[in-house]
Amino acid sequence: MPEQKQTAEHQTVKPTDQQVVASQDGAITIPAASNSNTAGHGSAMKSFSGGFQLHGSGGFKADYAFEAPRAGKYALAVRVVTVQEGQKFLISANDGKAPVEIAVPYTIGKWQQTKPVELSLVSGKNTLHFSIIDGSRGVGIKDFTLMPVK
């Protein structure tokens, strides 16, 4: 059987795939492909589950601009997939406190949420600063979910 070559196709992320969604219960979902101000190794790709996902490794950094309906504390969880152990993220909101470290679960290639961490948001415009810690590799990120802490 002859060897088949695979080619990577440039993916255009449409505005509808970058739309931040706020639900009635106050949850905010930010697609990972809606990033800006990126640095390092990361790229958006079509997701088998629909829409896009971000694939990245250590040193990748991105910002995510979004609106919060109210100020306060929010629990942030990241939907991830990986077949590697020991990966970590750093996340902070706006330019306030030091970044919070999030351990990425070993998901055996299935989508799973990270354990939530608490962030403080302001009412209106916010920026989520995200980075993958050096040494981490091969992690897929679908989205970030912020739930109001009651």
Question: What are the salient characteristics of this protein?
Answer:
150 residues; mainly beta; Jelly Rolls; 8-stranded antiparallel sheet; 5-stranded antiparallel sheet; globular
Please tell me about this protein's structure.
- It is globular and about 60 Å long.
- The protein has strands spanning 21-22, 28-31, 36-39, 42-46, 52-56, 61-68, 72-82, 88-93, 100-103, 112-113, 117-121, 124-132, 139-148.
- The mean pLDDT is 87.
- Strands 1, 2, 4, 5, 7, 10, 11 and 13 form an eight-stranded antiparallel beta sheet that branches. Strands 3-6-12-8-9 form a five-stranded antiparallel beta sheet, with no helix packed on it.
- The chain has a single domain, classed as Galactose-binding domain-like (Jelly Rolls, Sandwich).
- With 150 residues, the chain is mostly beta strands.
- The chain starts with 20 loop residues before the first strand and ends with a strand.
- The protein contains no helices and 13 strands.
Query: What class would the helix/strand composition place it in?
Result: mainly beta
Number of strands: 13
CATH superfamily, by name, is Galactose-binding domain-like
If you average the pLDDT, what whole number results?
87
Which segments are poorly predicted (pLDDT under 50) over 5 or more consecutive residues?
none
- What top-tier CATH class fits best? Mainly Beta
CATH topology name, in short, is Jelly Rolls
Rounded to the nearest angstrom, the distance between the terminal CA atoms is: 60 Å
Strand content: over 45%
N to C succession of SSEs? EEEEEEEEEEEEE
